[in-house]
Design goal:
70% helix
Length: 236
């Protein structure tokens, strides 16, 4: 069932389900507070399923390749989220915020897949990429994580530092982790980034822009919370 079509009915319906869930998650956050533990471990299970199921699936059908190693940027997001479930870390969350909120959503809008619904790989792809931003929102809404503005630059530099060994690993293995070597094989946003040095320039520019855009709602939230704090201090 290798006939995925961008913005086909299954794709559009899947996006509608995700965005409805995402915005309901935010809008009904106070009403969902009593169900925090259930939400926490449901998202945890989805993260774990998304990362482990594809590895087991490829092994069972004897199609496992080096390019299937869990070293993509969404895998890094998953590892950070799972880590935060057991140990609080502001630095880890800062990085997760920038690579785990908007990038997976963009990956769902322009997915790097060839299989159509109801194929397992279609379902797993969207469940996994849905779970990551939902995990980010869980930590913000229920665990009180916030991200300082200075984290935009520090997280961007951290991503680039991580990309350096990944670049050489791609050279060694002939893989394309982090899509550093070249755009994805299927037609995605990266297809329009050009090739050679221009591909890397566009990749860096867009990555930094994504960091800035991702931070805008957080900046608004912090400004609103600081304003409310000042008002409460004056009243007291």
């Amino acid at each position: 069932m290798r006939d995925f079509t961008l913005f086909s009915m299954p794709h559009i319906v899947t996006l509608i389900i995700f965005f409805t869930t995402f915005f309901a998650f935010v809008y009904y956050r106070k009403k969902l507070k009593p169900y925090q533990e259930m939400i926490k471990w449901t998202v945890f299970a989805l993260l774990l399923f998304g990362e482990l199921s594809i590895q087991l699936y490829l092994i069972l059908i004897h199609e496992y390749e080096l390019s299937d190693l869990p070293l993509h940027i969404c895998s890094l997001s998953t590892y950070l989220a799972l880590y935060l479930y057991f140990k609080r870390s502001q630095k880890a969350f800062n990085l997760l915020f920038f690579i785990g909120l908007l990038p997976p959503i963009l990956s769902m809008i322009s997915p790097d897949i060839v299989h159509q619904f109801p194929h397992f790989r279609f379902i797993r792809y969207f469940l996994r990429h849905s779970a990551i931003p939902l995990a980010v929102m869980y930590f913000i809404l229920f665990e009180g994580y916030r991200v300082p503005r200075k984290a935009i630059l520090s997280s961007f530099l951290t991503i680039n530092l991580i990309a350096v060994p990944i670049f050489f690993l791609n050279k060694l293995l002939g893989t394309n982790f982090f899509f550093i070597a070249n755009p994805s094989e299927t037609e995605t946003i990266l297809t329009y980034f050009g090739s050679g040095i221009m591909y890397y320039i566009h990749l860096e520019i867009v990555a930094f822009m994504v960091c800035i855009i991702t931070y805008i709602p957080m900046g608004i939230l912090l400004k609103r919370e600081n304003k409310n704090l000042r008002v409460n201090d004056k009243m007291n």
